[in-house]
């Protein structure tokens, strides 16, 4: 049991004991559940909660009424009284009935991991899209947890977690109102999504190579974006510093520009309602030509984090994207060969604060960009095809060979397919001389 601060800190709403239940099933992955509880402490602190102590129960299965067992509920009640706690935060998702039963037994505010994460997102949201997405996720989470028709949400009126966020005034509504609000939010989201899709299509039309920074929260994604593009994205040693995607142009050593996008971080047990609500944002990842998977290699847990990120990518349908793994924060640790074996495909060992490493990242992107392209050999009498090549993709390099023009293009698959009958015969595979390559 971890003892932490017991004196009352003014201005802090929640003084909480954090509770985790390890069932037989989860026991197989003890390392992960232990780490999950540590992460819950970090999440709670990020949300502005004073963490009093943590508590774990090992049990065959969860209790359908109170989640943890009767004896553990009594122990928790005692500790909350002793430490003057007013909140219990559970590391796993609770049902509506479990929340009500625990509230009745303990007479404190009951929060679960999902609610805590949603609360942090609510605090961070500052774009219209982000705000809509968070409210949608919060209400979708809340709806099935309300009991009976017209049950009011009095327990949410005290402020703090569960009551914060864009929808806080709206939360005093019954189910029907919540349902109406969800519909309304979905409609507003459609408008935002339409904008985003338009924007994305414009970028795609422009033929730009798109690279997404993806990874576990706090891995260093925003730092890398800032370092590479001199953007000023918020960087903080905390979970979920970034919520909205930010895109910036990045010039590669060969002079070509690509678009680099920073995205929201992942975490284990990322709430399902959140993934669903954030689909529009996460689709940035699906649009990318290349994923830079940022890993905080200074953490003991980094392999597990990598696997979690890959699992979420799979869920999003982005598993087959080309990936370069960036083992970041190398300045803090010695990375072993064994650690690198787990990376899928290519990897680089870097520190976001090392100039030479930043160059390596740019070169690695450049290499992907070039390997993604085709060469065409256009005879002098087919000059009209050159204009077409500029339309079906991004021209990377041109050269002259006798009367022929050699053109390297990163083609947009769709545009190229439509024109393949004109262009395919002019594809030039491997006949390019040295010096003509980038
Ligand atoms: N020592 C060291 N610290 C780093 C490095 N890269 C990032 N950091 C630190 O790690 C912390 C998190 O960095 P962010 O860039 O905010 O991480 P992120 O992946 O964007 O995190 P979220 O937006 O919360 O998902 C900050 O305190 C950074 O200064 C690195 O290479 N070395
Ligand atoms: Mg970030």
Automatic annotation (TrEMBL):
Molecular function as annotated in GO: GTP binding; GTPase activity; metal ion binding; ribosome binding
Biological role: GTPase that associates with the 50S ribosomal subunit and may have a role during protein synthesis or ribosome biogenesis.
UniProt: GTP binding residues: 215-222, 240-244, 262-265, 328-331
Gene3D superfamilies xrefs: 6.10.250.2860, GTPase HflX, N-terminal domain (3.40.50.11060), P-loop containing nucleotide triphosphate hydrolases (3.40.50.300)
Organism (species): Paenibacillus psychroresistens
Annotated keywords: Coiled coil, Cytoplasm, GTP-binding, Magnesium, Metal-binding, Nucleotide-binding
InterPro entries recorded: G_HFLX_dom (IPR030394), GTP-bd (IPR006073), GTP-bd_M (IPR032305), GTPase_HflX (IPR016496), GTPase_HflX_N (IPR025121), GTPase_HflX_N_sf (IPR042108), P-loop_NTPase (IPR027417)
Protein name: GTPase HflX
Gene: hflX
Family: Belongs to the TRAFAC class OBG-HflX-like GTPase superfamily. HflX GTPase family.
Principal location listed in the UniProt entry: cytoplasm
């Amino acid at each position: 049991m971890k003892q932490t601060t017991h004196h009352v800190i003014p201005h802090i709403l929640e003084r909480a004991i954090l509770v985790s239940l390890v069932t037989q099933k989860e026991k197989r992955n003890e390392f992960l559940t232990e780490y999950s509880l540590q992460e819950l402490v970090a999440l709670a602190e990020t949300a502005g909660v004073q963490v009093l102590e943590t508590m774990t129960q090992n049990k065959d299965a969860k209790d359908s009424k109170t989640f943890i067992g009767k004896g553990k509920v009594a122990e928790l009640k005692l500790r909350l009284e002793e430490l003057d706690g007013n909140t219990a935060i559970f590391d796993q998702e609770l049902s509506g009935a479990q929340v009500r039963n625990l509230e009745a037994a303990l007479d404190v505010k009951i929060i679960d991991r999902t609610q805590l994460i949603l609360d942090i997102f609510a605090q961070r949201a500052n774009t219209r899209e982000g705000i809509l997405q968070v409210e949608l996720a919060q209400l979708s989470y809340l709806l099935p947890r309300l009991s009976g028709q017209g049950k009011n949400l009095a327990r949410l009126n005290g402020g703090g977690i569960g009551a914060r966020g864009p929808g806080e005034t709206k939360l005093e509504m019954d189910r029907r109102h919540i349902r109406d609000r969800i519909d309304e939010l979905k409609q507003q989201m459609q408008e935002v999504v339409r904008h985003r899709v338009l924007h994305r299509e414009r970028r795609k039309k422009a033929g730009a190579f798109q690279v997404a920074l993806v990874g576990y929260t706090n891995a260093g994604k925003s730092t890398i974006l800032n370092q590479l593009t001199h953007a000023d994205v918020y960087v903080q040693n905390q979970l979920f510093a970034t919520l909205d995607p930010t895109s910036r142009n990045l010039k590669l050593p060969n002079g070509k520009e690509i678009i680099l996008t920073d995205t929201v971080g992942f975490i284990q047990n990322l709430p399902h309602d959140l993934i669903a609500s954030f689909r529009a944002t996460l689709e940035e990842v699906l649009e990318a030509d290349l994923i830079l998977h940022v890993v905080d290699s200074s953490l003991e847990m980094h392999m597990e984090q990598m696997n979690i990120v890959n699992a979420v990518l799979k869920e999003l349908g982005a598993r087959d994207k080309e990936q370069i793994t960036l083992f970041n924060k190398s300045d803090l640790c010695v990375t072993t060969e064994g650690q690198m074996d787990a990376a899928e495909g290519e990897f680089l060992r870097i520190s976001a604060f090392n100039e030479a490493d930043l160059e390596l990242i740019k070169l690695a992107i450049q290499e992907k960009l070039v390997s993604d392209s085709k060469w065409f050999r256009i005879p002098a009498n087919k000059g009209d095809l050159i204009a077409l090549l500029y339309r079906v993709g991004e021209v990377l390099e041109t050269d002259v060979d006798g009367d022929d023009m050699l053109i390297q293009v990163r083609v947009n698959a769709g545009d190229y397919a439509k024109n393949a009958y004109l262009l395919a015969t002019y594809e030039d595979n491997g006949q390019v001389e040295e010096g003509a390559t980038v």
